[in-house]
Task: structure prediction
Amino acid sequence: MMAEDAHCSCGDLAAHDGRAISDCKDQDERIYMDYNATTPLEAEVIKAITEALREAWGNPSSSYLPGRKAKQIIDQSRESIASMVGGRAEDIIFMSGGTEANNLVFHTAIRHFWKSCGAAKISELGGEHHNGKAILPHIITSNVEHDSVKLTAESLLNEGKADVTFVGASTVTGRVEVEDVLAAIRPNTCLISVMLANNETGVLMPVKELCVRVRALNAQRPSPRILLHTDGAQAIGKVQVNAQELGVDYLTIVGHKFYAPRIGALYVNGPGTLTPLLPMFFGGGQERNFRPGTENTPMIAGLGKAAELVSLHLHEYETHMDSIRQYLEQQLQAVFGKEKIHFNSHFPGSETLPNTCNVSILGAGLQGWKVLSGCRKLLASVGAACHSDRVDRPSHILLSCGIPPEVAANALRLSVGRTTTKRDVDLAVEDLRETVVTCDSPEAESLSPQ
Result:
């Protein structure tokens, strides 16, 4: 899910063409290359979770020892996560995951718009109606966002709670261009949400430049200001992410993308003071009433430990993944030939995640889902795992980026991880070669063993 991709226990539903998960055999021989869908837990993360389960089982709001221990773990984790993303501890609000965080930002923006819009503001916008249409809060996002952003925006639009503009990604750069976003701004724009890195192409979006331009615009506009959000799910743990340097008001953090458990957090620049944050839930006052509910101490402990590891070892992780991804792309070209390979993650002038290779093996009968269903070792996906029920259709994200339908239909999203080796790459590429040979494609004949 770019904030939380669904994921089957053997790697990805799309890789098995509807076969039962129990049919997956020889797990130790499988080569996992779907780290953009989910990551395993680091050993130190498992240890932190286990210790919290055993020693910090108390309610964090309680005064006795197990409760105080839980509160201490939560506070330390908040510090570690804040340090990882360049914020302050008070800027971190724990969430169930990225989907909740993204929904909270959108609903906050809508409610804050109306709270800030008195009669004078409505009049500035042209009255309650303009050209026969009611004035509504306006949201700008892109057409390549994760579903937890896309569907939230569509829901608000369909329910008549907001106007939404979906800015198209450039078919040249694969990016959401700053000028296109700026051109979509209206007097009633209340939120701009553009992901930090795309979960399928790996393209990094110009969020920092966008924030600089919008903040300058905000200084000239009457209140309420345009709020700025980025879903950082795919970027955190792979590239340096500093919320203060980016200039965002909100940053979504998703644990299971950086070797933490399935829990998340939302960075908010001064929640409730500098930046609005209005709760969707109401309860016992936890998380300063922004997200009440008794804290999930063990999972928060795991998230904090994973954040600590990112802060300590990010350069090492990034360097390794980039090296392995480059080797993967070299081997794909060497085995299949440059004319048979199209990298859907290569766009001129655009930076990409160090670990993501979106590639199509060209030829009839080589649709991505079909190739993956025939692989004996490779575990990968054709795109976001939350779209695994649509494997026979080209990715709308690739199509939006200008990839031709017949090429997009053959796409494989191969995402490597911290422990992926060159030997893993060799085994995966050989598995692909053997599978392509058996597919009903004229092109496959030239790849048959001599």
About this structure: The mean pLDDT is 90. The chain is about 40% helix and 10% strand. The longest helix spans residues 297-336. The first strand starts at residue 31 and ends at 32.
